[in-house]
Amino acid sequence: MKPRPHIAVIGAGAFGGWTALHLQERGARVTLLDAWGPGNSRSSSGGETRVMRGTYGPDQPYTEMAARALKLWAKYERRWKKQFLHRSGVLWMASGRDDTFERGSIEMLRAAKIQHQELSVAQMQKRWPQFNFSGIEWGIFEPECGYLDARSGCQAVVDAFVAAGGEYRQLAVVPRVEASPYGDRPNIVLADESQVTADVFVFACGPWLGKLFPKTIGKLICPTKQDVFFFGVPANSRGYFTDVHLPVWGDHHDRFFYGIPGREHRGFKVADDTRGPEFDPTNGERVLSSEALKRVREYLAFRFPALKDAPLLESRVCQYEQTPDCHFVIDRHPANENVWLLGGGSGHGFKHGPAIGEMMAELILKDREPPAVWRLERFKPLSS
């Protein structure tokens, strides 16, 4: 009988946690490691919620991946008897100035068989009078999409992984000299000076991937500071500004803003998707930018007039792990075939976690190669 491969996964966020679970379910022996725990406040998978959508513009792999992720989220919700995906729908508002993103998404949504509707302004205004649709000419509505519970979703994946026989340890990996070979008995050293020996390593370290692999990754993954705001709604609104009556939305009218009308009374979430300054995810002070708050308040007053004077209830500083082209990094280390590098979520990775984990399990256990769009070789012209 062929021995079970031992695979160590470093990082228990959306990418690493789902990869560990899929590997464990396929018979591998898996050790999962994380410095601060699944969905922790420093991680790219932390926080309350993430958008689940299929609209991604033309000529990209993510709409099809989102379609697969939708099926997998539903599968595991049934299996675990828990809900993570709240199908409030997602509305994309297309500006008359440039609707290339939305126009290019329609064919991709159709090919991936993700339910969607093209709506006129009159149709949107009738369904959602909370919006001011000034400057908008049409929209896309994805009824089976919505938003995901982020932190609790990460924890549920790790809990299921452990229940399936996986080993989880909350310890940081000590950085090593990247050029050093992993040898016949490859291992990593942990913060408590213990070692983990494995046949294959998967580094899914989010914004820390460049620090662990400064030569291979380095600045190809750049953590950026992203401010998120939660506003209070009127006491007599009767759910008018919750996901019972409103979808998640994305708005390309000026800067790209998006929002999630939360379910659990955490406030009305609004964020500016514009990439912020570089940020240290380990030691960075998570203090909000007053300029960002001002922009969001102005947007809120414009697009949702009834919330013009809404008080700020909560706020959060998270980060994107941004690559130059916004595509993921999924590839073997160029000098170590038994080391996989997985990251570059670029602010849109969380929703794809189940599909990423499924794909990684296939790549590793069947010794396959990843699609070119995610390989490191695409960056050679940038670094040469």
Name some characteristics of this structure.
single chain; 384 residues; alpha/beta; FAD/NAD(P)-binding domain; D-Amino Acid Oxidase, Chain A, domain 2; 2 domains; eight-stranded mixed sheet; six-stranded mixed sheet; 26% helix; 26% strand; globular
> CATH first level of the largest domain: which class?
Alpha Beta
**CA-based gyration radius:** 21 Å
Q: Which residues sit in consecutive blocks of at least 5 with pLDDT less than 50?
A: none
Q: Tally the structural domains.
A: 2
Proper CATH architecture of the largest domain? 2-Layer Sandwich
Mean pLDDT across every amino acid position: 94
Task: Sketch the topology as an H/E string, one letter per element.
Answer: EHEEHEEHEHEEHEEEEHEEEEHEEEHH
**How many individual helices?**
9
Instruction: State the shape.
Output: globular
Helical fraction equals 25-40%
Question: Would you kindly provide a written description of the structure presented here, covering whatever features stand out?
Answer:
- The protein folds into two domains: 168 residues, 3-Layer(bba) Sandwich (FAD/NAD(P)-binding domain), CATH 3.50.50.60; 180 residues, 2-Layer Sandwich (D-Amino Acid Oxidase, Chain A, domain 2), CATH 3.30.9.
- Helix content is 26%, strand content 26%.
- The chain contains nine helices and 19 strands.
- The chain has an eight-stranded mixed sheet with strand order 6-7-5-14-15-16-13-17, sandwiched between helices. It has a six-stranded mixed sheet with strand order 9-2-1-12-19-18, with helices on one face.
- The protein starts with 5 loop residues before the first strand and ends with a helix.
- 45% of the residues are buried.
